[in-house]
Amino acid sequence: MLPEARRDFRGSFSGYERDRLFYNTNAPSDRFVQSAYVFGLDADHDGRAAAPVDIDGDGDLDLVLVTLQGLRLFENTAPPQHFARVRLTASRSEAHAVGATVEVTADGVVRRDFVKITEGFQTQVPFDLHFGLGTVTTIEALEVRWPSGDVERWTDLPVDRLLLVREGTAAVVAEALRRWPDGTRPSVIGAPTPTLEAQQLDGDVAPIAGAQRPAVINFWAPWCAPCNVELPQLVTLAERYGDEVDFVGMSVELADLDSVRASIERFAIPYAQFLADETVMERFFGDSAQAALPSTYVFDQAGRLRRLFRGALTEADLDALLLSFRDEGVFEADLELVARTSFRGGAYAKAIDYYRRLIDADPRRVQPLYQIGLASLRLGNVDDAREAFEQVVARSPTNVLAQFNLGVARFRSGDVGAALRNFQAAIGLADADPLVLRQLADAAVEAGQLWLASDALDRAVAANPTSAPAWIDKARAHRARGQIDRARQSYTRALELEPTNDLIRQELDGLGAPHE
């Protein structure tokens, strides 16, 4: 097949085989677990290349896939961890130092990688080497075996930096990563969910589908010829599955409702019908609000979008998919993923429901309780938040953020004395860990406890005076409190550590000239 014809091919070169991701559990047995479905990476496109690369400059690796259907980018949204990024420049061989071996020793563990051009089929990877360090805050040693045969070693290097290493040069230059400005980040197209409320054909407003069972949501119109081909097949499936699956019709025809009712009568459609108004279209198709007709969204019993059919589907395709749901059940990993996705999307009530189901599945788990507390705070349910955080602190007294958020809940409920004790406990538990202190400061800023944020950041820069990000956070906290002189001092210190960081300079200039 000619390359220019690939995009028009309606079949699948791979036979619709799904992508796989194998997770290393470090367990003695069953060490690698197939986890693509859990992480939402089990697409059935025709993949050709995959590369881990830090697209947004936040210090973790994202995933770029090239398929015959186009380019796909998966952003890594995991909590921040320490890292080292190493860029080599050779002076006695090819400049990119291809073939050089790098060893990073941190907390007694040696991590090893080598500079390469490709890694896998049709995949070119960055020359920079990335080393994840977890909670480790200092690199004990960096050793490079150059293509020339020379071996060089450096010690006591900072983490969370791009380390520029030139062959034959005594010093390693540490620079901050350049991040995407917030305004340039890609936006998510749509946020389809089966629990969205919409107007029914009779004028009532109700959730599109029920909870805890699969849902098939079909966008159609009476004048859409392919829709008229697939509607009888959807009717057959709806009758076959009965109450086991929610079938839903979404009419994009909003003006001529008589034609919609005529089609419903003609095809004897037994399932509920809704009107795809502007809100529905935006949630399912993004801001453009344009739909390819017909389009059918299939959600599993955990509320996850499992397939999107664009164009007329067949009874066999959909039947096979729905049958597969029967064998899957609902796993804790599924619930956790949907809960986390709901929380990030602002659907806090839905997130609480899924986190409670996680607790029902395993009452020993503490993290779902903590997330219920956070979601309750976002909803303004202070009593529910306080109850959840109290349980977390009782089970895990050293949980810094749980102590802090319990203080927030108590503060908002008027128990100021108890709240201050929780705030002080959180500061004490964070001790001198710069990463934990910065996380505590972020939470304090979000909750409006700026004094606590300043205290945490004072401790963070005292624990690691060479951390420019900590000084930047400290400057922003002072600026938020109106302490402009102290903010200027902190920005200046950050700029001394990272003279080429334009963002620091811009924020410092934004403070204006100092008063005489």
Supply the key terms.
disordered N terminus, 20 strands, alpha+beta, Immunoglobulin-like, 4-stranded mixed sheet, 5-stranded mixed sheet, 516 residues, Glutaredoxin, 15 helices, 4 domains
Order of the strands making up the biggest sheet: 18-17-16-19-20
Please give the largest β-sheet. 5 strands, mixed
By secondary-structure content and strand pairing, the structural class works out as: alpha+beta
Q: Which percent range fits the helix content? A: 25-40%
CATH architecture of the largest domain: Alpha Horseshoe
**Tally of helical segments:** 15
Average pLDDT over all residues: 85
Report the principal-axis shape. globular
The total beta strand count reads: 20
Distance between the termini: 74 Å
Give the CATH level 1 class of the largest domain. Answer: Mainly Alpha
CATH superfamily of the largest domain: Tetratricopeptide repeat domain
Give the C-alpha Rg: 27 Å
What percent strand?
15-25%
Low-pLDDT windows of residues: 1-7
Task: Describe it.
- The chain has 516 residues and is α+β, with helices and mostly antiparallel strands.
- The protein has four domains: 3-74, no CATH class; 82-181, Immunoglobulin-like (Sandwich); 197-328, 3-Layer(aba) Sandwich (Glutaredoxin); 332-509, Serine Threonine Protein Phosphatase 5, Tetratricopeptide repeat.
- The chain contains 15 helices and 20 strands.
- The strands form six sheets. It has a five-stranded mixed β-sheet, covered by helices on one side. Strands 9-6-12-13 form a four-stranded mixed β-sheet, with no helix packed on it.
- Helix 6 packs antiparallel against helix 7, helix 13 (468-480) runs antiparallel to helix 14 and helix 14 (484-497) runs antiparallel to helix 15 (502-509).
- The termini are far apart.
